[in-house]
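Let us practice reading a record.
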Amino acid sequence: MQVKIHLNRELCTKCGLCVRYCPTEVFVLEGSEIRVREERCIYCRACEVLCPQGSIKTELLDDGLSIEVHKVL
């Protein structure tokens, strides 16, 4: 599963809620910047809900898998 995290740095106030509550430590506060480690994301979307500024959006990417559905008679 691949996830793309869109962090709007203009809206982000660096409050640290995403850093503090992400269960897989996707977000890291380094100095005055938030670093995003997308490879750790499990797509729980807690960061989207927690962010008071609405500066985080997550997107589940198609990993190339396809499922064929067949009607059984």
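A brief commentary: The mean pLDDT is 88.
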